[in-house]
Amino acid sequence: MDRINNTKLENKIFSTRMRLAFIFVLILTIILIFRLFNLQISNHDYYAEEALGNQMRTLPITPSRGKIFDRNGKLLATNQLAYRLTLTIEKTKNIAKTLLTLQQLGFINDDEINAFHKNKKRYKKFHNIPLKHKLSETQVAKFLVSNQFIGIDIEPYFHRIYPYNSSSVHAIGYVSRMSKKDKKFYNKKNYLGTSFVGKSGIEKQYEILLHGKNGQKQIERNVTGRVVDTQIIKTAEAGKDLYLSIDLDMQQKAESLLKGKRGSIVVVDVTNGEVLTMVSTPIYNPNWFVNGISHKNYQSLQTSKDIPQLNRAIQGLYPPGSTIKPMVALAGLESDTITKRSKILCPGYYKLPNVKRKFNDWKRTGHGVVDVKASIAQSCDVFFYDLANKMGIKELHDNLQFFNFGQKSGIDIPGERGGILPSKAWKKINKNEPWYRGETLIVGIGQGFMTTSPLQLAVATAALANKGVLYQPKLLKNTQTPGQAIKEVYKGSHYQIPIKNIQNWEDVIDGMKQTIYAPKGTARKLNKGLKYTLAGKTGTAQVFGLDAEEQYIAANLDERLRDHALFTGFAPVENPKIAIAVIVENAGSGSSKAAPLAKEVLDVYFEKQAMH
Q: Do 528 and 556 have their domain in common?
């Protein structure tokens, strides 16, 4: 039997159900709105406090920075426990008022308030933002006694310290507060919570090794915002300790010898390119920078005519003067322009055919008849004018290029400058002028356009000493991960200068030996009481050009226009171990002002060797 469809009844049931559903949804909506109103408006403060109180937060753990040692394990840079004042934005109700109160109580000053406003954008609201570093014990005690601040805390941290103050500052460098530029440059995740980074020297070069890897901790807070639980999710990995090739005793000796002068002393190991001494004076105290340098100290550095922050060892470019003569002599011998028997009469000046100008020798009365060895030992300019003229600038340039002049040495600290090894092309590009024959003569005695850094001179002298091996100089010797064995670092590259006749090298070295030991050698005063054999070359570099007829009288000149004094050398002669370059700005004669300093630094090295 067919069912009878009752459409009327079905419609009635449907519309009743629809009405009930609508009423139900409406009631739910009203309840939801009421609940939201209650949560967001009526009881907002209460629930916000509740939510804040039970927050779980993940915070970074800053790793402890690696230490820096000299080659003998003397501590050059380390970390000291200190305390800092921090502010947490989400816990501090009225930041402006809090900062003002802290200032009135003498905890912070205007500079620190400005720094806080500048830095706060880099932090999240629940991070502890540093307000003041390195609080004194009195300030810590005073704060703990009167702590009425919510959101202001004292926390321990490790502060960078340089135990020997100014010593070795140009090699080690320093750390200082992270800048916006630093934040962009370093890995954001790994540098969360890091306040300080290396700004120069080894501290900057090996920042990543020294920094280590940060960890993570999870903190839980109660209703009042106090930390009730801390769990370490990932431990921080401390930075590596670095051992430099620097010898602190030699370093400090060189610094004391250059005290009150502007100059540089560099000593390199002839057998591997390690840098034993890298001194640039004047020096300055890296501890000044760690917490942000004071206005007074900053002004003293910025306004000093002596530019203490310039690392003269790698950034100071000077005419090498006569210290280039052994390399020029070698170029002459290797290119068969001269032989070791070639002689020349030195009357005290040199003249090019059909050129009016006289090129004076430093010794106005002349050196008489000299060969290549005597011309090195007595530093005869006329011999080298003649040799440079015969070789021409191309031959001269190409041979000096073997010793890496005009290019960076590739040392492992930032800021090195390459100097100038002039050529026809260089002059055309840089001066847009042709090359003149007279300029070739001037290059032959290390003057004119040619410039080099003390480090380049030391490296080139080492290459002469070991007969042609040119090493890339290095400051980092070993690294050590805390709790593990010391690891030796890759030494850097080296190449062999092509040699046509080894006897030529022997002859040049002999000329440098005669500088110290021959009766007319320019550094003969050094051989008194020498406990090791020494070969060397003195140099005097003009700061400005003198007219042919003018005589150089230092007393008549402003101190900063006087000649630079230079000395390069290596020891012992038979089995060379170390090479040295000394430059003293505006000091005058290399034989009297630079050579004695070199001897005193080398004495320290050989005294230590004798003790082992």
A: yes
Stretch 225-233: mean pLDDT: 77
Task: Decide if 231 contacts 217 (C-beta within 8 A).
Answer: yes
| pLDDT of 549 above 60 | no
Helices (H), 38-148: 44-53, 95-104, 110-119, 137-145
Range in 121-130, 206-215, 301-310, 538-547 with the lowest mean pLDDT: 538-547
What token pair was written down for 201?
């020297």
Give the tokens for residue 174. 């320093």
Where is 531: in which H helix or E strand?
Answer: none
**Which of 244, 272, 288 lies at the terminal end of a domain, its last residue?**
244
Question: 46: pLDDT confidence band, cut at 50, 70 and 90?
Answer: low
| Domain assignment present for 217 | yes
Question: Nearest to residue 583, comparing CAs of 534, 537, 532?
Answer: 537
* pLDDT given at position 550: 40
146/143 Cα distance (integer angstroms): 5
Question: Region 510-514: what's the mean pLDDT?
Answer: 97
Could you tell me if 359 and 390 lie in one domain?
Answer: yes
Cα 306 to Cα 261, 403, 587, 597, distances in angstroms: 9, 30, 14, 20
Note whether 240 and 280 are same-domain residues.
no
Domain contains 19:
no
Which percentage of the chain shows pLDDT scores above 90? 60
CATH code, domain with 557: 3.40.710.10
Residue with tokens 């991960």: 481
User: Of 322, 335, 375, 423, which is the active-site residue?
Assistant: 322
- Closest of 489, 412, 473, 417 to residue 203, by C-alpha: 412
pLDDT at 560: 60
Q: How many domains does the chain have?
A: 2
Annotated catalytic residue 322: yes
- The radius of gyration computed from the CA coordinates of the chain, to the nearest angstrom, equals 36
Examine the domain organization and report whether 315 and 240 are in the same domain. Answer: no
Average pLDDT over residues 231-246: 94
Does the residue 28 lie in any domain?
no
If asked whether residues 461 and 546 sit together in one domain, one would say yes
E strand or H helix at 184: helix 180-185
Show which of 244, 270, 290 is a domain's final residue.
244
Residue 363: what pLDDT?
93
pTM over 0.90: no
Residues 108, 102 contacting (CB under 8 angstroms): yes
Is the CB of residue 375 less than 8 Å from the CB of residue 444?
Answer: no
Q: Residue 503: which domain range?
A: 248-299+309-478+490-611
CB 412 within 8 A of CB 205: yes
Nearest one of 253, 205, 214, 245 to 232, comparing CA atoms: 214
pLDDT tops 80 at residue 209: yes
The DSSP symbol for 38 reads I
pLDDT above 50 (res 427): yes
> What CATH number corresponds to the domain at position 106?
3.90.1310.10
Find the mean pLDDT for residues 479-487: 93
- As a whole number of angstroms, the distance between CA 132 and CA 291 comes to 9
Question: Residues 366, 369, 371, 375: what is their CA dihedral angle, to the nearest 10 degrees?
Answer: -10
User: Rounded to whole angstroms, how far apart are CA atoms 485 and 479?
Assistant: 9
Report the mean per-residue pLDDT for the chain. 88
Q: Are residues 349 and 236 in the same domain?
A: no
Whether 232 and 267 share a structural domain? no
Q: Is residue 15 part of a domain?
A: no
Q: Which residue has the higher pLDDT, 46 or 557?
A: 46
256 and 179 in a single domain? The answer is no
User: Which 8-state DSSP code applies to residue 226?
Assistant: -
